[in-house]
Amino acid sequence: MASKTNPFTFLLQVRAEASKITWPSRRETMISTAMVLVMVIFAALFFFAADQLIGWLLSLVLNVGR
């Protein structure tokens, strides 16, 4: 069983670990956000096209809509 840590010691350890965090710059955040948005748009267009193609092929195979 792990030994219990004094709450004051725990808070000191948390503060020490939090000081090691390197946050991204505003520029890095903006670039990452733009990349995510572009990939989301590409994925949406791809799945829309795939859905339309599959629907069209199924309508040909099943003779639906004629």
> Which runs of at least 5 residues are low in confidence (pLDDT < 50)?
none
Global Rg:
26 Å
Structural class: mainly alpha
Average pLDDT, all residues: 91
Helix content: over 70%
Number of helices, where a helix is a run of at least 4 consecutive DSSP H or I residues: 2
The biggest beta sheet, please? none
Written as H for each helix and E for each strand, in order along the chain, the element string is HH
DSSP summary, beta strand count? 0
**Residue share in β-strands:** under 5%
Terminal CA distance:
72 Å
Q: What sort of overall outline do the alpha carbons produce when their principal axes are compared?
A: elongated
Q: Could you characterize what this model shows?
A:
By secondary structure, the chain is mainly α. It is about 75% helix and about 0% strand. It is built from 2 helices and no strands. The radius of gyration is 26 Å and the shape is elongated. The relative contact order is 0.06.
SSE blueprint:
Layout: H1 7-18, H2 26-62
Provide the descriptors you would attach to this structure in a database record.
elongated; mainly alpha; 66 residues; 74% helix
Give me a quick take on this structure.
It is built from 2 helices and no strands. With 66 residues, the chain is mostly helical.
